[in-house]
Amino acid sequence: MILSVARRCAIAALVFGTITLAPLRAGAAEILVFAAASLKTALDEIAPAFEQETGHDVKVSFAASSVLARQIQLGAPADVYISANVNWMDVLEDEGLIQTASRVDLLGNRLVLIGGTEQPKIGQLEPGLALDQLLDGGYLAMALVDAVPAGIYGKAALQSLGLWQEVHMHVAQTDNVRAALALVATGSAPLGIVYRSDAQAEDRVHVVAEFSPDLHPPIIYPAAIVTSARPEAQAFLDHLQTKAAWVVFSKQGFALPGS
């Protein structure tokens, strides 16, 4: 049977399209990002935009910075690591597990005390605050205070205020800061200490008070490429530093490092 001219043109166009698209598919890569749990809302918006621009596929594993660092130490095939504090990045750098030249201080954040939407706001967090009374027999939700950055910052702030001894027996510790956020959001804990960006991501909580940055070490999110990363990892790290990504980070409550 002789094919019509229109049908032959359609087939030719299909074949040509397949040939021209093949290099794009072949050049696409999967990039595995290990990111602090507090980054979830922002990266859930940023990663798809990068995928659409580049054709690469981005997979993000969210957990506590400490957990992710230990997984990299054990050989997890991450390409990019974003920590919620400098210490865990320092550990990986000292062990030769990140590309030092790629390391960048990406973001900053603020620490806040949150409660349910009915919880009254406090003025300034000051020494002598009756925090145990505000808990009213409940627990203060915090990420692990000796391992997870948000918990470490929170403990340091409470110690600076002279409140740690008063409340440390009433702290409910969680694996990561988003789990602490969930305890307050569901009413399982009346108060919690999280990042400002976490509070903005959850409608069922509000900021009861902010901690002064002087009460704890600076909150800095360093990012770097893992030593064994795929070459395409640099493109994603570069994208995180673009104006488009910053608009998303800023909207979610993050700040520039040191601000």
UniProtKB/TrEMBL annotation:
Record-level GO BP terms: molybdate ion transport
- The record lists molybdate as bound by 38, 65, 150, 177, 195
Q: Which cellular compartments is it found in? A: Cell membrane
What are its GO cellular component terms? outer membrane-bounded periplasmic space; plasma membrane
Keywords for this protein: Cell membrane, Membrane, Metal-binding, Molybdenum, Signal, Transport, Tungsten
Q: A single Gene Ontology molecular function, please?
A: molybdate ion binding
Give the InterPro entries listed for this entry.
ModA (IPR005950), ModA/WtpA (IPR050682)
Transport keyword on record: yes
Q: Which Pfam families match?
A: SBP_bac_11 (PF13531)
Region forming the signal peptide: none
By its UniProt entry, which NCBIfam families does this protein fall under? Answer: modA (TIGR01256)
Which family does the UniProt entry place this protein in? Belongs to the bacterial solute-binding protein ModA family.
User: What is the stated purpose of this protein?
Assistant: Involved in the transport of molybdenum into the cell. Part of the binding-protein-dependent transport system ModABCD.
Q: Which PANTHER family match?
A: MOLYBDATE-BINDING PERIPLASMIC PROTEIN, MOLYBDATE-BINDING PROTEIN MODA
What does the annotation say about its assembly with partners? The complex is composed of two ATP-binding proteins (ModC), two transmembrane proteins (ModB) and a solute-binding protein (ModA).
Q: What is this protein called?
A: Molybdate-binding protein ModA
- The organism is Ruegeria profundi
What lineage does the source organism belong to? Bacteria, Pseudomonadati, Pseudomonadota, Alphaproteobacteria, Rhodobacterales
